[in-house]
Automatic annotation (TrEMBL):
SUPFAM superfamilies hit by this protein: Acetyl-CoA synthetase-like, NAD(P)-binding Rossmann-fold domains
Region feature Disordered, mapped onto this chain: 1-26
Keyword hit for Phosphoprotein: yes
Protein name: Acetyl-CoA synthetase-like protein
Length: 1089
């Protein structure tokens, strides 16, 4: 048996006057599980837990009861795990459950008492994060909550484990016990001597916590029995005798370290833990329920997140009671200074609770009285610290091991002793030595008022990929959500008080922000109104190293930042009465009031608010107001409500239905949601397929083709336009685009787009191309009557290539695009020509997103089920169906072109943010590239454009073709060129993905704590879900294409296109790959490598 590690004697701080609690031996002679048994004999009547029952009566649980319940839990765990005496290892038992605090805490202590290591896992983690934790720790058994949410989380976790680690052991689950399973009648008792605890050494694991995962996947933090003992002695170095005090632990779930620490300290210093009553499901803590529970149980010490304290500060009755307490502490983030100052002015004893998972609590355990301003604190006297000078009278705190204390995690050494550099920046009190306050972090992690954290480094790096951004700084410390201060490149200077120019700039960078938001945690995502732009009068300041002086810039723009938050706060329409109940009728009345107040125009219950001018700021106002209503009138955890729910439910009726369901806690099942989407798709088809005009042509066309091309400034549109300009069969091209929001002339926009893609810009001045601006949904397309009538009389072919690209919004938000297609059909049918102009519509392979794996996808119409689930794909399917209806009811002979994967044009121009360029970007960082011996059917932009022009002159019975290369080449032939360019090996896809996952999970931090710049800039980290999906498809052996990609039939396309039918049609080869990489280098994708 290993020797016990002994700690030195402690100050006699606690249990000096208590008649029910005896201080346990905390010198290391007993472990925590043994201390629980010790209290059964020595402090049997002292209260461990206290709670208010449903009848309002206060009830308590003594150490006699809790110690016995802990042993019952230990027996249950040993029985489930098949425990045998003398087992050498300490297996890990995970807990994934949402249960009341007393039950949860008792189970954790029971697992430790059973000689297993307890691993509480936050149910707020994603399935991928839970899978990562289970795999890394080696969890073999999980105690699983009984509610549907935790079971779905575990099921999704298992799917990821099976897909990514097929040879790994899959943990077994058993149900979470209920309170009555552990707290049995007093007559039932398992004596301690009948359930022996086996001491396996002070360094045997007892408990595992995990970090928040704010920088990458959460990291497990191991607590040995010795480290648990260090947690127990921590309060003994404070200045107050807290024995008998009741700690309010209502705010902290037991799977969070702070929640469990409150329970551990009950055994150490004799405090009593105040919690909600045992019940299932447990109540969701909100400011009011926590306050009432703490008041009913007479808690003298309250500890929680700043957001709750801020809410309490606005209620005078709450403040009066808080002023009678001994301690009101906050942690996990900064407290708004104005609210903190107000609470202190009213006599509320505010204290900072400062600690991190890697080190535990770092400041003194509640000094005897407030000696300095509430923001400042003293560090624990028993820990050794070192302060590293940083900047402007700030220092990084480094915690060093000594005989009493050692950090849970060490990442550096100081004078030969292991230490943990916290990355926290502290500033000393100007006049009181030994007092400090937190001012930021060396890694600039932003702590929000919710306790969530944002790591700005990777997010800022993504934004700096945008060609309009020179530098940027994220902010949001102490706020509900982050914002960003952007410094434009020198080519784009402007006064940010010019609202039109500010809106234009935000729109320019918004695609990049959306990509960043797709990668960021939900609480770290940016909204457009929180994008601030630097003023030429207050330029960015840089250090000697060339990095932005973050703190200085945030201080410089403090007024603008506060103004932005004030505007967002005002977005909550708090004076709109809340529904008395959330039935369908009251919900729709409430949503009507919210929408009418914010949009300030009449909107029907079935009208899409985004088609009535609702912008992103107004959508945020609606979202905030709805969430406030849910928070104040229900116990729903609004953090779990999808942030895009206004976009997904863009009508008053659909939003009311959604909100009422959420308020009632009813699940919106995928199947019911899918059926509703399919119904909406069919209704949209019916709406725009009714009453087509009658074609009354009688004139034969003269001269060459006259083509109306929409969307000519995009990548594919530019290539179509260039080829039409060179086509001798074409007499004229109407290049139709929407007006620019920035006011840039259409000629300048078209020339710039052509130049960007290596195409000849002079074609716009050759007389063959007519550049027109307008709106397809407007009368005469928003053009002069003369221009419209001339286009209507002369057009022989329509190539409709313009479409809104937004993967966030629902089908109804695409209605303007669909209405525009209907107007083009009407234009065609109004033609005086004998044969109405054919409409070629560029659809998407996304319409087939619901096809079964490995299906051969034929060139035929498909049912709505194939496209349902994504608004963009649904809108394309609806448009296809409208054209099929037009073909059946009118003389129009349309052609639907489902576009597959497009590759770069002849000049290598391939968007650097797409999935394959992003994959190539990883090559010099990961030092490998994935291989596959199957084919790819990618088609270069110039060939795709040529084929589409061919389709405009062809017909087939299904009115459908697929645009993919008819002569696939092997992935290997392309990957070999990439490998040669970077002198790296080819590896199986699974190995490449595992390397990328490791970078993402580790945050790619080097030993010196920095990020290597290439990894920091990898777009692939934003696209991990895409690559994981490809990883699953890659395992589909029956797929004929690389990475399990969709296998599109192209027979009809080949029959309709001489370009594709040519047996010598250019295949992708080494030259294409070299051109792509050259283009990407020029675009800065590889950061100068």
């Amino acid at each position: 048996m290993s020797a016990r590690r002994i700690l030195p004697p402690l100050p006699q701080t606690h249990a000096r006057t208590s008649g029910t609690f005896r201080a346990p031996p905390l010198d290391g002679s007993l472990t925590f599980p043994e201390i629980c048994d010790w209290h059964e004999k020595n402090s049997p009547e002292h209260r461990t837990f206290v709670y208010a029952g449903n009848d309002g009566q206060v009830r308590s649980i003594s150490w006699r009861e809790s110690a016995r319940a802990i042993r019952v839990a230990a027996k249950l765990v040993r029985d489930r795990m098949g425990w045998q005496p003398g087992m050498a290892a300490t297996p890990v038992v995970g807990i994934i459950a949402h249960s009341d605090g007393i039950l949860y805490a008792t189970l954790v202590l029971g697992i430790m008492r059973a000689n297993y290591a307890a691993f509480p896992i936050s149910i707020r983690n994603s399935p991928a994060a839970v899978a990562h934790l289970i795999k890394q720790v080696g969890v073999r058994h999980v105690v699983l909550g009984r509610n549907k949410g935790t079971q779905e989380l575990f099921d999704a976790t298992l799917e990821i484990l099976k897909a990514q680690h097929p040879t790994a052991d899959i943990p077994v689950a058993s149900p979470m016990p209920v309170f009555e399973d552990l707290y049995l009648p007093e007559s039932f008792n398992i004596p301690a001597e009948d359930l022996l605890f086996e001491f396996k050494g002070s360094d045997a694991p007892a408990w595992i916590s995990h970090s928040s995962g704010s920088t990458a996947f959460p990291k497990p933090i191991w607590f040995t029995h010795h480290r648990v003992l260090q947690v127990l002695v921590m309060p003994w170095y404070g200045e107050r005798d807290l024995t008998g005090s009741i700690f309010s632990a209502h705010m902290s779930p037991m799977y969070h370290g702070m929640g469990l620490l409150n329970v551990l300290w009950t055994a150490s210093m004799g405090t009593t833990c105040g919690l909600f009553a045992p019940q299932s499901p447990p109540p969701a803590p909100d400011p009011d329920s926590v306050f009432e529970a703490a008041k009913t149980t007479d808690c003298s010490i309250l500890m929680g997140i700043p957001a709750f304290l801020e809410v309490w500060s606005y209620n005078s009755e709450y403040v009066k009671w808080l002023a009678t307490r001994d301690v009101v502490a906050f942690g996990g983030g900064p407290l708004n200074k104005e609210r903190g100052d107000y609470l202190v002015s009213q006599g509320v004893p505010i204290y900072v609770s400062y600690g991190i998972t890697e080190t535990g609590r770092l400041n003194m355990f509640f000094p005897a009285g407030g000696k300095v301003e509430w923001e400042y604190f003293q560090l624990r006297s028993e820990i050794t610290t070192k302060f590293i000078p940083w900047d402007d009278n700030t220092f990084e705190l480094v915690v060093v091991s000594n005989e009493i204390y050692e950090p849970n995690v060490c990442n550096t050494t100081v004078d030969g002793r292991s230490a943990y550099a916290t990355s926290d920046l502290l500033s000393p009190h100007p006049t009181a030595p030994g007092y400090w306050r937190i001012v930021g972090r060396t890694d600039d992690q932003i702590m929000h008022s919710t306790g969530e954290k944002t790591n700005p480094g990777p997010l800022e790096s993504m934004l700096k990929q945008d060609s309009h951004i020179q530098d940027c700084v994220m902010f949001g410390r102490g706020k509900f959500q982050p914002g960003i201060l952007v410094d434009p490149v020198p080519e784009y200077p402007f006064d940010p008080t010019d609202e039109a120019r500010l809106a234009e700039f935000r729109n320019k960078i918004w695609p990049t922000v959306e990509k960043m938001n797709a990668y960021a945690p939900q609480h770290s995502r940016l909204f457009k109104e929180m994008i601030l732009v630097s003023s030429p009068a207050k330029p960015f300041q840089f250090t000697a190293k060339g990095t932005v002086r973050r703190a200085a810039m945030i201080k410089e723009y403090e007024e603008e930042i506060e103004a932005a938050y004030e505007q967002v706060e005002k977005s909550e329409q708090s004076d709109i009465p809340l529904p008395s109940q959330w039935d369908d009728s009251t919900a729709i009345g409430f949503i009507r009031a919210v929408v009418s107040r914010i949009i300030t125009r009449a909107v029907g219950d079935e009208d899409d608010i985004f088609q009535h001018g609702c912008d992103s700021l107004q959508a945020t106002y609606i979202r905030n107001t709805v969430l406030r209503a849910l928070r104040e009138s229900t116990q729903i955890d609004t953090r779990k409500v999808e942030t895009t729910f206004v976009y997904s439910n863009p009508t008053i009726s659909s939003l009311a239905y959604f909100v009422a369901k959420v308020a009632r806690g009813e699940s919106l099942t995928e199947s019911s949601n899918l059926s509703q989407r399919i119904e909406a798709m069919h209704k949209m088809v019916a709406k725009y397929s009714d009453n087509f005009p009658i074609h009354r042509g009688g004139i034969s066309p003269t001269g060459g083709d006259i083509v109306l091309l929409t969307g000519s400034t995009g990548g594919l549109g530019c290539h179509i336009l260039a080829q039409l300009a060179d086509d001798p069969k074409v007499a004229r091209v109407y290049a139709f685009n929407r007006p620019s929001r920035s006011g840039i002339a259409v000629r300048d926009r078209q020339r710039s787009a052509l130049i960007q893609r290596g195409l000849e810009a002079s074609i716009v001045d050759g007389g063959k191309i007519v550049l027109v601006e307008g709106d397809l949904t407007s009368s005469n397309f928003g053009m002069s009557s003369a221009t419209y009538e001339e286009m209507q009389r002369s057009t022989t072919h329509i190539i409709h290539n313009a479409w809104r690209v937004d993967f966030n919004v629902s089908l109804s938000s695409f209605e303007d695009s669909i209405k525009g297609l209907r107007r083009l059909i009407e234009l065609s049918l109004a033609s005086p020509l004998n044969t109405p102009p054919r409409i070629v519509f560029t659809s998407s392979i996304g319409v087939l997103r619901g096809a079964a794996p490995n299906d051969r996808l034929n060139e035929v119409p498909v049912t709505a089920e194939f496209a349902a689930g994504l608004g963009y794909a649904e809108s394309k399917w609806v448009s296809e169906q409208i054209l099929y209806q037009a073909a059946a009811k009118t003389p129009i002979d349309p052609m639907v072109v489902r576009v597959g994967q497009l590759s770069g044009g002849p000049g290598g121009d391939w968007n650097t943010h797409e999935w394959f360029p992003s994959m190539v970007q990883t090559a010099p960082v990961l030092r490998c590239f994935p291989d596959d011996d199957r084919g790819v059917t990618w088609i270069p932009l110039d060939l795709a454009a040529s084929a589409i022009i061919d389709f405009s002159r062809a017909t087939n019975s299904t009115h459908t073709v697929h645009l993919a290369h008819p002569r696939p080449v092997s992935w290997h032939s392309l990957a070999t060129i990439v490998a040669s360019e970077f002198d790296i090996p080819l590896v199986p896809y699974a190995e490449w993905l595992a390397n990328l996952e490791r970078v993402a999970q580790a945050g790619d931090v080097l030993e010196n704590g920095t990020f290597p710049s290439p990894a920091k800039r990898m777009h692939a980290l934003q696209l991990l879900p895409t690559y994981r999906g490809l990883g699953v498809k890659t395992d589909a052996e029956s797929s004929t294409l690389a990475l399990g990609m969709a296998d599109m039939e192209v027979q009809k396309a080949v029959e309709a296109s001489s370009t594709l039918a040519d047996v010598q049609v250019r295949q992708l080869g080494p030259q294409d790959v070299h051109q792509w990489i050259a283009y990407w280098r020029k675009a800065g994708l590889f950061g100068g490598q």
